[in-house]
Amino acid sequence: MANDFSRDILFCRMIGILTQAELDMLATKTVAVPGCGGAGFTHAESLVRMGIGRIKIADFDTFGPENMGRQFGATIHTIGKNKVDVLEERLRSINPALRVETFDGVTENTIDDFLEGVDAICDAIDYWAIGSRRLMYREARERGIPVAMAGPQGFGANLHIFDPSGMSFDEYYDLRDGQSEEEMRVNFGLGLHPAQLYRHSLDDPNLNFKNRGGSVLSLSCLLCTSLVSTVALSHLTGKQVALKPVPFIYQIDLAAAKFEELHIPDGVRGIKSDPRAFLR
To answer: By the 8 A CB rule, do 233 and 132 touch?
Structure first.
């Protein structure tokens, strides 16, 4: 029975897209996935199903019925359970040899252990947790770890890749110590979706700053996973892809049949100075 779960069997259908040597190398790689909800749950599952040998997951939250519409770990059986615990069980059921480490969110107390030995990060931190996100990006940059982030919007998603030698997270989003959290979140939102492709099918993204909510579809969360998994897999295997790091960003909307590459050398400051220049 043990041989039924050997890597050569579990991941055999990847051969041809990857070489055996590349697949074997993935067993030695570590990916961190902060956030285990709408996008992060499937980020982690996709990576494990592609042969990643070690994964670190972080979230402080539990599943609730309000998560059912978009978070793939939310079921009637997981309501009230910690997201990291549900995801860990799911991942171990896919690959029994997987090494999994869980963390109670991304904080000053957890960040060192969370990023130790990590080769790539697939960011799925909640939109509203700007402090945790800034901390993670700063520490990842100091450690030379690339980060891929995708956020759902309408019938599509965005993709931002942060190379540790390129433009930083704070530089692109124009974030500084001393800014209010609301100002940071406004800048973050502007930098995520400057092309506003969602407007072709959605009048208003419906962000609710007071109650920390917004409109999200499960299909868009899955699209986010496809985007960041492509970046992570290509980085870990050394394959070249055409996707470029920030200040290039990517936006896709399936309902509008649009895929856009935008070059924004001045980041959010440039978007603020002429927002219509980036509409598509």
So the answer is: no
CB atoms inside a 10 Å sphere around CB 4 = 7
Domains detected in the chain: 2-278 (3.40.50.720)
Residue reference for tokens 């049949």: 257
Q: Report which DSSP code applies to 50.
A: T
* List of residues 6+ apart from 20 with CB closer than 8 A: none
- Is the pLDDT confidence value at 1 over 60? no
Spatial distance between the Cα atoms of 219 and 153, rounded to a whole number of angstroms: 10
Confidence of residue 218 (pLDDT cuts 50, 70, 90): very high
The rounded radius of gyration (Å) of the Cα atoms in the chain is: 18
pLDDT beyond 70 at 128: yes
pLDDT tens-place string over residues 183-192: 999 999 999 9
Residues 33, 43: Cα–Cα separation, whole Å = 7
Residue of 157, 183, 161 whose CA lies nearest to 172: 161
Alpha carbons within 13 A on the beta-carbon side of 190: 22
Phi, psi at 148, each rounded to 5°: -115, 135
**DSSP H or E segment with residue 154:** none
- Rounded Cα gap, residues 40 and 124, in angstroms: 5
Please give the angle made by the CA atoms of 115, 214 and 181, to the nearest 5 degrees: 55
Helix (H) or strand (E) holding 156: strand 156-162
CA 49, CA 2: separation in Å to the nearest integer? 18
Residue pair 173/187 in contact by the 8 Å Cβ criterion: yes
* Backbone φ and ψ of 138, nearest 5°: -65, -45
pTM over 0.85: yes
List beta partners, residue 260.
Answer: 251
Q: Are 230 and 243 in contact (CB under 8 A)?
A: yes
Question: Under DSSP, is residue 123 helix (H, G, I), strand (E, B) or coil?
Answer: strand
